């Protein structure tokens, strides 16, 4: 039995983004218990040259919606990166989940050979076929930025474990 492009993308994005909403809940509980505002989390970095917490979530969102749009051969929605609170981040995650779930298996399945181009800052786009893009770029990029989000919260003292990352 083969695995479908849809089943290897949409459910993965939805599950991990849903898990991220739970991390935000735990972070809010941690901030409340320690008596500080959740805005403290928004600029967290593990290193001076690292993108901050908020940007990690924005990029994970962009990775999920961009992947599904590219594989589905549909327009990738463009969203401003203006999230400035946990409520804003939750809204973006929920909007991402809604968009990703709106793309059907019929739109994504069969996209293994679809030509995918990713623009880069250098101007030279990255080029993939759909399967390579999904397996070796989109999922890796998505997981990297969610791992950084998770690590930043752990670094800040939020009680998260591997089960929180993987989900039930």
Question: What does the model show?
Answer:
This protein has 168 residues and is mainly alpha-helical. It has a single domain (10-44, 52-166), classed as Up-down Bundle (Four Helix Bundle (Hemerythrin (Met), subunit A)), CATH 1.20.120. The protein has 7 helices and 2 strands. Strands 1-2 form a two-stranded antiparallel sheet. The two termini are 25 Å apart. The relative contact order is 0.21.
How would a crystallographer describe the biggest sheet?
2 strands, antiparallel
Query: Tally of extended strands?
Result: 2
Content-based structural category: mainly alpha
The low-confidence parts are: none
Strand content: under 5%
Q: Quickly count the helices.
A: 7
* Rg computed from alpha carbons, rounded to a whole number of angstroms: 16 Å
How many angstroms separate the termini? 25 Å
Please write the CATH class name.
Mainly Alpha
**Approximate helicity band:** 55-70%
Task: Label the CATH architecture.
Answer: Up-down Bundle
CATH superfamily: dinb family like domain
Query: If you average the pLDDT, what whole number results?
Result: 97
CATH fold node name: Four Helix Bundle (Hemerythrin (Met), subunit A)
Strand order within the widest beta sheet = 1-2
| Number of spatially distinct domains | 1
Secondary-structure element string: HHHHHEEHH
- Coarse morphology: globular
């Amino acid at each position: 039995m083969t695995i479908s492009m849809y089943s290897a993308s949409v459910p993965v994005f939805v599950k991990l983004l849903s898990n991220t909403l739970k991390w935000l809940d735990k972070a809010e509980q941690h901030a409340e218990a320690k008596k500080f505002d959740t805005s403290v989390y928004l600029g967290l970095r593990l290193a001076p040259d690292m993108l901050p917490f908020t940007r990690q979530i924005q990029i994970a969102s962009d990775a999920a919606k961009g992947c599904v749009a590219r594989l589905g051969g549909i327009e990738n929605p463009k969203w401003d990166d203006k999230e400035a609170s946990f409520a804003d981040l939750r809204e973006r995650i929920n909007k991402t989940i809604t968009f990703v779930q709106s793309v059907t298996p019929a739109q994504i399945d069969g996209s293994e050979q679809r030509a995918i181009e990713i623009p880069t800052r250098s101007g030279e786009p990255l080029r993939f076929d759909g399967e390579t893009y999904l397996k070796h770029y989109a999922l890796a990029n998505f997981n990297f930025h969610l791992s950084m989000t998770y690590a930043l919260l752990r670094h800040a003292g939020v009680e998260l474990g591997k089960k929180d990352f993987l989900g039930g």
